[in-house]
Amino acid sequence: MDKRFFTLPVLLLWILSGMAQQKHMADRLHVSADGHFLEHADGAPFFWLGDTGWELFHRLSREEIKSYLDNRAAKGFTVIQAVALAEMDGLRTPNVYGQTPFDNQDPAKPNNAYFSLIDSTIAWAMQRNLYIGLLPTWGDKVTQLWGTGPVVFDSAKAYAYGKWIGSRYKNNTNIIWILGGDRPAARENEDWRPVWRAMAAGIKSATGNKCLIAYHPSGGSSSSQWLHNEPWLNVNTFQSGHGNGHDVACWDFVTKDRGLSPPKPTLDAEPNYEDHPVSPWPKWNPDNGYFRAYDVRKQLYRSVFAGACGVTYGHHAIWQFMGDKQEAINYPDRGWKNAMDRPGAFQAGYLCRLMQEYPSANQQPNNKLIASANGEKGTYQQACQSADGKIAMVYLPVGTEIKIDLNFLKGKTVNATWFDPRTGKKQATQAVSGREIHAFTPPALGVENDWVLLLQAI
């Protein structure tokens, strides 16, 4: 663990948030009454800070899995997204113990030895206050389109497998089910929704309907465009992705999903990964470079402040757990062990702890707070506000003066504090008069000096 990032206030907040998470870890999550967020059984808010450990069960040993979970728990992650039937030839290439998930690639013949590692991982995650965002399968086993497949599921087999895996984990309360696996649910003249619907039905039958189900789509899309009205879908996710350059308008995905009826939570389950090549398809241009921590922070904060129920961080080496035994996929610039303590992973944790400290703050996205000219793409600012109007936060991707209409905050006086997304530290608080338009200047200006302006009415 890199102690440079753990100042005393940050460490204290981490301890307190960990204690709160421990209190609720046995609870099953459910959707909040307003339909936009996730909660524990007692109504306490839950913030989804995910990490894409897609190949976790397929490529790591027991000791490596524990080390990885320790690292993510210490940084404040709450959800680990991992796949039972992995993307990288997961039906034919065995895990590190020589086990494949099925006999003869037949979903009706599961291999208990393979799934025992998943059993243990779910238990280890529980011990570390982590939820597992469990994908029963990567999407290429339903519709190949690209990847290695093979396609092994039709509706009947999907229902049977969903019921089997749902039964296996029906008593594990720290599971969020995620269908899809980087695939569209339908496209012109092709419709795979009956297969996913059947798998969801199997899971729901096996768990007695005590489950939370999301769907992970392909890049540049949201599950809502195909599945929003499916009764089995509890949470929409979208993938702003890696292929459309910097500053994809993730906030627009959130806004669109939040405007749908019935309301359902939404989040970016795969934004630009730290240390991922920028737009590597169909051929990577090295001059485009890599997404770094600053690129990651911009996307995480702006989707959350737009009203998402959380967000997922990812690292390009970690999702594939690339090491000396694996072929590198899409030009990672380091191995997974050297990627564990990259700055963006720490900084994602700072966002989570900020939202845990002010859990009501992003209840309502509200860019009307911003009285000065807002930008677009790399300069686009996003504001949010609590339902009672007493707390607001504004993310500035570039350090610049910003004018705020304080009439939207319900107090005669407003305390304004700058929060540094790079360090998790707060600057000195400034008290200003409410009911006016006031200009604020962050402590440092310019590109890569991003800030959160925290406003509290008193």
UniProtKB/TrEMBL annotation:
InterPro entries: Apiosidase-like_cat_dom, Collagen-bd_put, GH. It comes from Chitinophaga terrae. SUPFAM superfamilies: (Trans)glycosidases. It comes from the Bacteria. Residues 33-359 form the Apiosidase-like catalytic domain. This is Putative collagen-binding domain of a collagenase. Residues 365-456 form the Putative collagen-binding domain.
